[in-house]
Amino acid sequence: MIPAAFDYEVADSAAHAVELLSRGGDEAKLLAGGHSLIPMMRYRLATPSVLVDVGRLDDLRYIERRNGAVAVGALTRHSELEHSGVLAEHCPLLAAVAAEVGDPAVRHRGTLGGTLAHADPASDLPAAVLALGGTLVARGPGGDREIAAADFFTGWFESALAPDEMLVEVRVPASTGGWNYQKFNRRAQDWAIVGVAVADGGSGVALVNMGSTPIRAAAVEQALADGATAADAAALAAEGLDPPADLNADADFRRHLARVLTRRALTAAGVP
Amino acid sequence: MSLVTLTVNGEGRSLDVEPRTLLVHALRDHLGLTGTNIGCDSSSCGACTVLVDGLSAKSCTMLAVQADGAEITTIEGVAEPDGTLNSVQQAFHECHALQCGYCTPGMVMAAMSLIDEYPDLDEAGVRSGLEGNLCRCTGYQNIVDAVLQAAATAATANAPAGSTP
Going by C-beta distance under 8 Å and a sequence separation of 6 or more, which residues neighbour residue B64? Predict the structure, then answer.
């Protein structure tokens, strides 16, 4: 299980990374922490011809308050989110979800930008950013553009990022209203069979592994806005969804889990 | 080929590797440090855990080129030069926290990092903190006991002078 050969380039800035990506064409990939990409390369599910290493761009490792929001550099590691005093005060959901990713060794290497760009619907942090109504900043040859988290995830491992764009920042509104994250799995360290992130007392609810992307539970949010109880709103969590079936769970079981976990998450977030 | 310069167990090392060379293979095959084991080969089992700049990392899921310039600690660099075990190794010894021993190097490295990162470890914290390290002998109870003992030793050592534990 050795990756296929590739050319290795080290980017010394985000602009340099974009330039290297443009030059590498469709076969170039960014390498950040590598904890999603390297396993896929080892299984030869991914065989990029050029790897552009952005893991040394320490100027994109930060967590700071900015205009009522929290701005996080794309290269910030999961363990840095987990232990962040800024997040503990202004966006505890993001820190708590980061602490649920993989295991400590994985969290020391994996990055927020990497997990979002990888766009695995079974990952924890994409759903948290979606529930929070975050904004992603992509840098490309023409400069920066903002992409709402709601528009970012377009399919299995697919995002709105162009092949020559790089995520440089993630912004989430400061959010200290009732929050919770529920993650159901059977083995330690596994991906969520189903997960639910609740932000701001239920104004944002997003589901993990219930479709080809992380999914906003719009029916639940609407019911809560209309005054439904946590239990009544949670009953709508799987409405209209067609979740995947695999060895861990069939689609019906996933729908059941989505309803149960949403109820638990809403209740823990203080929704009556 | 890429030139990689590392500090491994306090000693500067340079090696010429293919970019696709994994850190674990660089350590074992290029530097002869075979204390770091390869288990699952898929970042699940933690047998290959080493410290990269003081933090645990699975060396099967890192390219050697990513570690260029980093400080790596492997199990060979943990004990004192005279062979005195460090506090985690000593606790593993005293608690009989190893059976076949295959997971032990990774467990020790993961435990050292865990104790540094989480100062108030309790049993649940040790169990979740070591979830990425598998013991196929299923000897977890003694491993948890050992890590708790080592954590208590570290807490005592780090306590300010005059304070009571």
Answer: B4, B15, B17, B21, B22, B23, B25, B26, B30
